[in-house]
Specification:
This protein has about 220 residues and is α/β, with parallel strands linked by helices. It has 9 helices and 12 strands. The structure holds calcium ion (CA).
Length: about 220
């Protein structure tokens, strides 16, 4: 079982990530500050770390520098509210493998984690195959984040692509509005909004009206 270190001082976000990863079969450990992150990383063998930049005691970039300095080479994905280009550059120079700006959806985070974990284990053909989700004449390319329909290539805004990905990962399964909110919007939504229905509308327009079925009183289902 893969061990993931979550370095995040905001309890709400740490709990959100932890819950999602546990449901996907990962083992998780949360560190709430930089010092304990380093102590944990030196005593437990992790497969990957998610690292917030704004942390008490020791900030994320210093944590990263220290981990790399100690010879710990597991993939690190930076999570941060700062979308400043300089932070991004510093993070990647400091040895981070990827970068996500908050707020992010769980589905996108998971996709990036899976890419990083796969790259470390092997990078042969089965890996590539899993980077595409196929259904009928549609293929979602998770690397380029584009959809191929027949001979056409469709580029969707990030949130719409993530919703499409969630449907493709759960084919023939009814997805409730709540599940879609959790997976596509994460903690970043207004619970009273009809945003799920609006986005299902967008997808129907682009992928075809019949590809997502309304299951009355329950939610939506991919039907290709
Ligand atoms: Ca923080």
């Amino acid at each position: 079982m893969k061990q993931i270190l979550i370095v995040e001082d905001e309890a709400r976000i740490a709990a959100f990530i932890e819950k999602g990863l546990k449901a996907k079969g990962y083992n998780t450990t949360v560190a709430e500050d930089g010092e304990s992150a380093i102590a944990l990383a030196l005593s437990v063998s992790f497969d990957l770390a998610l690292l917030d930049l704004g942390l008490p005691e020791k900030d994320g970039l210093s944590v990263l520098e220290e981990l790399r300095g100690q010879g710990l080479n597991f993939p690190v994905i930076i999570l941060t509210a700062r979308d400043d280009v300089m932070d991004k550059v510093a993070g990647l120079k400091g040895g981070a493998d990827d970068y996500m700006t908050k707020p992010f959806s769980f589905a996108e985070l998971l996709a990036r984690i899976e890419v990083r974990l796969r790259n470390t284990v092997n990078n042969t053909t089965p890996t590539q195959a899993k980077m595409q989700l196929q259904r009928g004449n549609m293929t979602l390319d998770l690397r380029t984040r584009k959809i191929h329909i027949g001979g056409r290539i469709l580029e969707l805004p990030a949130r719409e692509f993530t919703m499409a990905e969630v449907f493709f990962r759960h084919p023939d399964q009814v997805m409730t509005r709540q599940q879609l909110l959790d997976l596509v919007w994460g903690y970043d939504y207004d619970p009273g909004s009809n945003i799920v229905d609006v986005y299902v509308g967008y997808l129907r327009k682009k992928l075809g009206n019949k590809c997502i079925e309304t299951v009355r009183g329950m939610g939506y289902r991919l039907k290709i």
